[in-house]
Amino acid sequence: MMRGNDKQTPLxxxxxxxxxxxxxxxxxxxxxxxxxxxxxxxxxxxGPGTLYDNLQKAMRRRWVADLGHRADDDxxxxxxxxxxxxxxxxxxxxxxxxxxxxxxxKVRLRIPKPRRA
Amino acid sequence: MLRPLFECLVGLHPxxxxxxxAPEMLSIFDHASGKRAALSLVGDAFISLIRQWVLRPGFxxxxxxxxxxxxxxxxxxxxxxxxxxxxxxxxxxxxxxxSLAVFLTITLAFxxxxxxxxxxxxxxxxxxxxxxxxxxxxxxxxTPVEFCLGRYVADGLHPATVDVxxxxxxxxxxxPGSTKTALSPCSGxxxxxxxxxxxxxSFSKFDRGKFQQLDIGQSxxxxxxxRLHE
Lengths: 117, 230
Known about the structure:
The complex is a heterodimer of chains A (117) and B (230).
Chain A: H1 13-24, E1 27-28, H2 29-39, H3 48-60, E2 64-68, E3 80-83, H4 85-109
Antiparallel strand pairs in A: 1-3, 2-3
Helix pairs in contact in A: 1-2, 1-4
Chain B: H1 2-11, H2 15-31, H3 35-54, H4 89-113, H5 134-142, E1 150-154, E2 160-167, E3 170-174, E4 180-187, E5 190-193, E6 200-207, E7 210-218, E8 221-227
Antiparallel strand pairs in B: 1-2, 1-8, 2-3, 3-4, 4-5, 5-6, 6-7, 7-8
Helix pairs in contact in B: 1-2, 1-3
């Protein structure tokens, strides 16, 4: 977890969703795109150009690792990706930042907290 | 038809990106269902092409093994710090070229839309222009007064006429209801009142062999009169 002066800059929307998609399990590019579409209920469609541009950035930062082709996959062109521990830390930090933002927003909008039964 | 187009767009990406991701991108295209999805992917590839060439110069080449951080040995943490990143010379050159191209494009478009005029905030230097056409300039030195003679009328609430006359090779200016005033040449088509201090008389707009406009300035006041054609 990043602390103090080691705050990371906010992640772009595409990169955030990519890391989220990989947080659950290893996926290939097309599966990442489909998972993001499910995450956002079809509101955000990620194209392969944007996907691989962000994957390239994530791999350079060591947030995502390239696992290569899987033998059980019938399409040899597909390569699988895995979220690394650094990537998990980055995603966790981003989620924490977003939680703070949402909390502040609720205070400003004065949205009541849901009561526990 | 869309597939070859998509393939062409992918093929135009920087070599490092193309070698790394082209097969996967084509795989995604092959799994896309419907023409609409295919069109969307083509559009995305076009945008990606521009993005990679314009915004990602650092990614044009594959990082060499020496540049990549060493993998951690078992049990030991490895850290990757990006603070030491320095843009490559090619990236700097690319950025400078792009900035210059954008600047020139905007400047040329600005000048074209505004015509040949340059905006006031840019310095404008104009050489003094003689009001007299070149053919008449030689004659002006010897007989300047001929172009000035005549009656001029100043428009206004009370129109006034000003007469420019010549007597014994001396040019005179006569206001209505006052005596005539001798004019002394200053430069070109400008004269000064021999009597009053600071009064300047200028003739301009040479047309049909004579000056058409007369300007009189004195102590901040200004009068413009135009030739009366009889």
